Amino acid sequence: MFRARRIWVTAATVLAVAGGMSGSAQAAPPSDAGPFTATAAANDGTLPPGWRITGKGSAQQLVWRSGTRVPMGDARVEFHAGGRFLGVPKPAKDGRTFRLGLGAVAPKRLTDLQVLAAGRRLDAAGDNSGSGKGRSEVAAQPAAPLPAGAIDPGKPGTYRTTTGEYTLDSVRLPGYPQPIEMQAVVVAPKGATGKRPLALFLHGRHYTCYKPGTEEITGDWPCPTGLKSVPSYRGYLRDQQLLASQGYVTVSISANGINAQDADAEDAGAQARSSLIRQHLAHWADWSAHPETAPPVVRNAPRADLSRVLLIGHSRGGEGVNRAAMDSLYPPPAAQDGYHGPVRWKIRGTVLIGPTIFGQNPVADVPSVTILPGCDGDVSDLQGEVYVDGTRGVSKGTALHSAVYVEGADHNFFNTEWTPGQAQAPAEDDFYDDPDQRDAVCSPGTATRLTADQQHKAGSTYIATAARLFIGGDDRARQLLDGTGRRAPSADPARVLTHAVGANRGAGFLPDGQVTVSGGTLCSAVDPDPAVACLSDDAKGISPHFAQWEAAKEVGRRAVALRWSAAGSPVTVRPGKPVSLGGAKGLALRVIVPPNTTDTQLDVSVTDASGHRATLGRVRVDGLPGTQRTASYWAREIRVPLAAASHAGLDLRHTKSLDLTPRSRSGQAWLMDAWAWRPGTPAVTSAPLPRVDIGRLAVKEGDSGVKTYRVPVQVSGHGSGQVRVYVHNPATGEDTSHLVTVRPGGNSIDVPVKVEGNTRFDYGVQHDIFVKAVHGAVVGAHRGGVTTENDDPMPTFTVTPIADRVTEGKPLKWKVTLSAAADVELNPAFLVQPVVSGPELSTLDVDPQWLSENSGEEAAPERPLSKVLGLFLWTPVPAGEFSGEISVPTITDQVTEQPESVRFLAVDQNGDPQSGGPELTGTVLDAS
Q1: Helices 452-466 + 237-245 axis angle, to 10
Q2: Taking the model in full, what pTM does it have?
Q3: What are phi and psi of 873, to 5 degrees?
């Protein structure tokens, strides 16, 4: 629960005193010791508890402090204001404090401040769990099991296994001050002949160090004396043993050194994790060629076949293996990369477990399986769905990209070293469970929630299923992954649902492309306008398909929304030109219906270019179990045969429209896409594509003149493709976007930034751009820009009395004057102090509302003002102006009193009174 002291203050607060000589001081913000305040207001003119601004000068930071420790996880903690993304704050070692450099954030824009992590709210009053609106009212009922598939890859193979570890010299990676460990655990089959495929595991972001026998855990690296390294890399031994029994050589690598340092990385560590993976693969290539040079555990294993590699990544490790697959096909810029050798391996597929995808840049030509945990309390928006949706139309489309939704699974229990009762270090269930706010779907003990062992068994089964398909080439495994609706019994009792794009899917009806809709609406996956957005903020839950990205509004990422109050009115989808369903066996649709709904019925019809229409069949769709806290608006794959259209004589090679006609009395649904489908898994080859990487340039503003800088952009690779470039305007907070054709060596992404030099203080400006692949391209580093750094000193200030001796009932007043105007608002601040001599003004001598607004305290019982905790005074001095006024409103009473005094002293950057700094002193006389 959020237990921060509720200090509500007016919006004008923030900047206090730091440094300076006697009688003058610099206008700078107080640190964590100061009040919970900010230059910017919430919507009602106040700032919520827990927020403040700290730092000095251009190092000004927006700070949020949680009432409880925020676990070190994989989802990014993000600051948002007014529904717009501000940035990713840096965590302090206490696990509760998060700081974001304000840069170009204008104070007037800091409204409706929120702290989000993968879409869940962390700063909601009374709830630091991200549980949203509290108690669930839905009692989810388990559905009947799906039919069993033709094979069960979760069954152990015939090989016994052997286990051991290796440790190599640590490596240094660009941007990481501390070296990264090269440590791994190997599980291999005994007695297997010939070269064997290699499966490499990478864990996600977790605590790095712990003190045995205690609950002490940290994110340090290297671990301090007395603490041990958390062995996250050993958390997949069960998965490794299953694969090894089936003939695979497996290795799970450690990445604690990255986890401890990736808070400073713009890409949250994706490139570093890729570099680490490829460092290990390079060693395995060496050892396969020269076994005598390998560590003992590797020498005792069969030789690894580097032409058949499967990468498995959990959480940020998932984003790392995706980037490693990209970097193995399309090399990254050398300056960003921590591996510079040849690529002597072939990655046949990836398995991504509850992954992050901050860049939303999946590799379209490498097959993937993304496991989505239905009760994920870390990456709770299930953004990994973008590894499926984000590949549509980007490249050839022959690689299978599957989403595997595991009902009742949390984020951590796929790794035994993150599982309570199994881990060496302290561990927890990441789905927060409040006994007073039980969740009907995900709280332990509910009918849908899996135990740790049940969850891990399901994970092992579907990792092995991906290996069977991508490495073994067994097409019978496909029906367990591609939306056919079959289950692997070894995963029981877990209910596992799947859908997919790619493989033998052909032409399709895609809302993202050139399409018109009648009877329904084209909605936007990410848009602040509720009239346009696919899912409103008041929906009971969220959708993985509509996961947020960098831009507040995305162009071209859409779905078809259906809403009806009576059956029978069709929704028609017409692509820009007819699509070919010729040669397909059926039409595969991905349709979302609201959680906990049942038996949504739709008739599916198609019309050819000549106007001939045929109804293919009626489909029924059930929603997933879900609550306010789950990402259960997830598409079910449904298929209808095309036989009826063929029998009716339709020219399926020229299909001009798709109709969905509701047959339920009322309801709601969203069509994600519809594809020509036939069974089979085609061979996959990667297309030669251009790769785009955005860099960042930091410059000083200078004292005069105007200079133009350009955002660093590198385009490498081959061919041409299209990307969408979003340019963020730091002055307005708005994003603009445009479609750009890129070619290696070209400068089509040209974003100039003009920097005007002056001698006035400001906080610096950050000009950002974000890039996403649209067609025929890949994107590595997706964000960057030009950061203008302030190089002018902060003005000092002095104090002049206006009315410092008044009769009670009149305000005390002082004028605060800056030594120079600034380009940003400054807010000199003062903290109450005991008076030097004589009676002191009390809490009953001042306006009680003023006292409450400035300290959060009540007037009674009467006490000297210097006994009021956190009583600050401040004045906003707007940009371009030189002065402001500070006042203390007094009230008249019926008590005869001697003159009473008050004293405030300017504070330094830590919020502490500054000895020798400016003072506000005043005396109030009795009115009688």
Answers
A1: 40
A2: 0.87
A3: -115, 150
